[in-house]
Design brief:
The protein is α/β, with parallel strands linked by helices and 269 residues long. The protein has nine helices and seven strands, in the order βαβαβαβαβαβαααβα. It has a seven-stranded parallel β-sheet, sandwiched between helices. α4 runs parallel beside α5.
Length: 269
């Protein structure tokens, strides 16, 4: 049985994974960004008969008091799942939105991971960090540059922590999970956020061209239960690959994009 603390469990893949892990027999501390999500998830957990396996609490990773409070829990696995994003072409998106994306996806997640690592080291726990990255951590997508860039940073952090902790003899392991495009609503809202700042009277990238690309992306999303099942499998296992990209079609796409980058030509006119 794993003792799992998971962030971003108020909705989407995080919520489904927290419930799935509890159903699989693991002890789960499911944390959410805001208090209303705590109430909603507690009610759902009670209704499902999982209250003996799931503790629900608030953990906004941007709030240091919440982070301090979370460290009082007994856990051997941290699932760093909380994230945010703002859409729009990177050439024009307001930089403060990029900064806000990095503050959550990169800096606050790293802060939480550092705290968990120190907790494991001080207790002599051979713990685990499972970092929920994205397919966007290994490729880019039009209009999702800020989000993808933050996930590229997380990939670098994950790989560095993996090697440092292995060399340090801590016994702490690091894994990443890289979901493809799943229909949780996250991608749709990320796209919607573009039009809080985009203005055809100001921006050279038109609203219609952005909407066209986003529409194509949103139409190719997968059933989230497929990803939830995979996350429960990976997190609940005693061993596994360092990286899990899912579904397999997304893994193949990522590998092809990375291979193509070595032969892609740039021609100046």
């Amino acid at each position: 049985m794993k003792k799992v603390l998971i962030t971003g469990a108020g909705s989407g893949l995080g919520k489904g994974t927290a419930i799935g892990l509890a159903r699989a027999g693991h002890a789960v501390i499911a944390t959410t960004q805001i208090w209303p999500q705590v109430s909603e998830l507690r009610a759902q957990v009670e209704e499902l008969g999982l209250a003996d396996r799931v503790t629900v609490d608030k953990l906004d990773i941007l709030d240091q008091r919440d982070v301090d409070s979370a460290m009082r829990y007994d856990f051997d696995t941290l699932v760093s799942n909380a994230g945010t994003g703002f859409g729009g072409p990177l050439a024009e998106i307001p930089v403060e939105l990029v900064r806000e994306t990095f503050e959550t996806n990169v800096f606050s997640n790293l802060n939480l991971m550092q705290r968990a690592i120190r907790k494991f080291v001080d207790a002599g726990t051979r713990g685990r960090l499972v970092i929920v990255s994205s397919m966007g951590g290994m490729l880019t997508a039009y209009g999702l540059g800020a989000y993808c860039s933050s996930k590229h940073a997380i990939e670098g952090i994950a790989a560095t922590l993996r090697d440092e902790l292995a060399q340090g003899g801590t016994g702490i392991t690091v894994q990443t999970i890289n979901p493809g495009a799943y229909d949780t609503g996250f991608n749709d809202r990320l796209g919607d956020s573009t039009f809080h700042w985009q203005d055809d009277a100001v921006n050279f990238t038109s609203r219609s061209s952005i909407e066209k690309v986003f529409s194509e992306i949103m139409q190719r999303q997968y059933d989230p239960q497929d990803m939830i099942d995979k996350m429960v499998e990976v997190i609940g296992a005693d061993k596994g690959n360092y990286r899990t990209v899912w579904p397999l079609a997304t893994e193949e796409l990522v590998k092809q994009v990375q291979q193509d980058a070595w032969t892609r030509q740039v021609i100046s006119e």
